[in-house]
Write a structure and sequence with these properties.
372 residues, mainly alpha, 15 helices
Length: 372
């Protein structure tokens, strides 16, 4: 009962938030244009949240994500605008910088045993200073059309429909093929009628999402990138040895070590991968803004951590899902979007978001205590 409560609470909360803002904004919140903008606004935070989920699962944290994302965006913009580098080359160099930052964090956390809180707190200040150094304290703009297309362009509506149909067909095949294998080997499976109902509901939700995108201008490239990353990292987390070892490390580090898991190596790899994920988010953020600014990414770490926790990731480690965290990011973006439409004072926006984060952590602790 408690497991189902924790699994579906975030979805119920998202629906409730959308209903409330729909009423308070007289329907403006659920207009296709606003919802499309909402999904695009979610992308930068959601991409980092995908990686942050695995970081928190291993009982670590990264407070530098906003500064590193801004740093990567500043590098790409500087190389492209100031030095004339081709967009692909500038983006490749920026991605490499993000990977190196991840390796730097992994080295200190895994091999020098410095708490990740301290390592990334130091990086938050270091790379915020680096952003000021690269930009000279001024905005670097405008970016090339190719660069802007990442965060501002759309897949044409007809191609969006084709992508949606293909994705639905792939999901149905993968889901029921896995069900067939589980039944074949004697594992417990969900009753067929309940499984069909759940699958139909998921397809219906996905179809609604696609309809909103097509009604506007099509699926944004940034949203498509986010969905692909979520699918890939959900597979890594649930179906690979690397992902399962990360959960084992977070659940019980001593037991994981005794079972032969090389904790230092896995943590090092995780932070390196997370550096690349943060770099992708930084590129999307700069692309959407069409500029590299000194204030880019400020406060992003709050939204990312809150999204992961609201999505069901436990700060005690060992528990969390990729898709749950993406829903958490959508909840945070919905709050920002809805309160902005209502012209809510920024003071109250911060207070409300902080209280929601506190409530999410309390729910996690309370349900764990009841299960224990």
């Amino acid at each position: 009962m408690l497991q189902h409560f924790r699994k579906y609470t975030m979805l119920i909360a998202l629906v409730a938030i959308w209903l409330i803002f729909t009423v308070l904004t007289e329907g403006v919140f659920v207009s296709p244009r606003n919802l499309s903008n909402l999904f695009v606004q979610t992308v930068a935070v959601a991409i980092i949240t995908i990686g942050m989920t695995l970081i928190i699962v291993t009982r670590n944290i990264d407070l530098s994500v906003g500064s590193v994302a801004a740093f990567v965006g500043a590098i790409a913009a500087f190389l492209q605008v100031k030095t004339g580098w081709p967009t692909p080359l500038a983006m490749t160099a920026a991605m490499a910088a993000g990977l190196l930052v991840g390796v730097w964090h992994g080295f200190w956390v895994a091999y020098r045993m410095v708490p990740s809180f301290i390592v990334t707190l130091a990086s938050m200040m270091i790379f915020r200073g680096a952003v000021l150094g690269i930009t000279g304290g001024a905005t670097i703009a405008p970016l090339s059309d190719a660069f802007r297309s990442i965060g501002q362009s759309y897949v044409p509506p007809h191609l969006s429909v084709i992508i949606g149909v293909f994705a639905a067909a792939w999901y149905l095949f993968a889901h029921y093929y896995k069900r067939m294998l589980r039944a074949q080997y004697g594992f417990k499976v969900t009753p067929l009628l309940i499984d069909i109902a759940k699958t139909a509901l998921m397809i219906l939700v996905a179809a609604g999402f696609l309809a909103i995108m097509v009604h506007n201008r099509g699926i944004p490239y940034a949203v498509l990138l986010m969905v692909i990353l979520a699918v890939v990292f959900n597979f890594i987390a649930r179906q690979t040895v690397f992902g399962r070892q990360l959960y084992a490390i977070g659940g019980n580090p001593d037991a994981a070590s005794l079972s032969g898991v090389n904790i230092k190596k896995q943590i090092m790899m995780l932070f390196a991968v997370f550096g690349g994920i943060t770099a992708m988010s930084g590129l999307v953020l700069a692309s959407r803004l069409n500029a590299a600014t000194t204030s880019a990414g400020q406060g992003m770490e709050l939204d990312v951590i809150a999204a992961a926790v609201i999505g069901g990731t436990s700060l005690m480690g060992g528990e969390g899902t990729i898709f749950g965290s993406v829903v958490g990011a959508l909840i945070m973006a919905s709050l920002d979007n809805g309160m902005s439409l209502m012209d809510t004072n920024i003071t109250y926006q911060y207070i409300i978001k902080g209280m929601i984060l506190l409530l999410a952590v309390w729910v996690d602790i309370a349900t764990r205590q009841k299960q224990g």
